[in-house]
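haha ok so turns out i had the wrong file open the whole time. this is the CORRECT one, sorry everyone. sequence first:
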Amino acid sequence: MEKNPQKLEDIVDFQKDNFAKEIIEENGEHMAILFALKKGQEIPEHKSPVDAFIYILDGEVDFKINMDIEVNCDEFFCNVVEADDNVFKIRKGEIFRFASDVKHSVLAKKDTKMLVVRI
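then structure:
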C-alpha cells in the first residue's frame, strides 16, 4: 500500500465474477480489509477469528447473522435501524460491530464498498 494519503474506496475495484478484497493492514488475526461487491455478490457464511466491525463506504448490504438467538443491538454495537430475522440492512455511512463467534454472511443489495476491521 502507498504511504501517501488515499481514499479508501479507491484502493479496491469491483470484479465481474466475484467480490474483491484488499488487506490494507494486518497484525496477526487483527486486520483491516476493504471489500468491493457488485450488486448480488455474496461473502459466504463464515466466522471472524476475533470481534470485528463493518463500515459501509458506499452502497448497501444485508448482513445475515446465522444464530438461534435474537440479536440485541446494545450487545453488538449496531446503529442499524432495519433488521428482520437477524438480517441487518447496513447502508452507506453505517457501522455494525459483531462478535467472533457469530456466523454471518454478507449480500450486496447495491454495488458496495466496505471496510471490515478485525479488532
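The helical segments are 8-11, 73-76.
again sry for the mixup
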